[in-house]
Amino acid sequence: MNMTPWHSQRSLDDFFSTINRALVKRPNHEHSSSSDWSPAVDIVENEQNFQIKAELPEVNKDDIKVNIENNILSFSGERHSEHEDKKNHRIERSYGSFSRSFSLPDNVDETAIKAESKNGMLYLTLPKKAAVEKTTNIEIH
User: Fold this and answer.
1) The domain at 32-81+96-130 falls in which architecture?
2) 28: which of 1, 60, 66, 91 fits an S-S bond (Cβ 3.0–4.6 Å)?
3) Where are the beta strands (DSSP E) in the chain?
4) Higher pLDDT, 70 or 136
């Protein structure tokens, strides 16, 4: 009987690679359908505004669209693959289209929202409306 040496690291790598392929969809080209990946997002609030920060590495600002419709803020775009004419050994980052949407709180001033793309991040600043103190006197009959 021949004994085959067991290489624990290689076996673990093979095991996790198999599990990863079975459980996780990882598109590796631009020709995938609808939303192929979803950028990580942080939403923070202070006294003056809400800020949404989205990780969009290697996404050109011209490939990002931001809009508001029916009180829903959405941003979408595409990250293009750079690997099409190369021999790929491993591709773990996702490429293709993305889309994220968020319901806006009632106190956001939609006309003053600002967007900036910088260093692989999309920054959306959503200023709050000034609080209006409204007092109504009701006459007693």
Assistant:
1) Sandwich (2.60)
2) 91
3) 41-45, 49-55, 64-69, 72-79, 96-103, 114-118, 121-127
4) 70
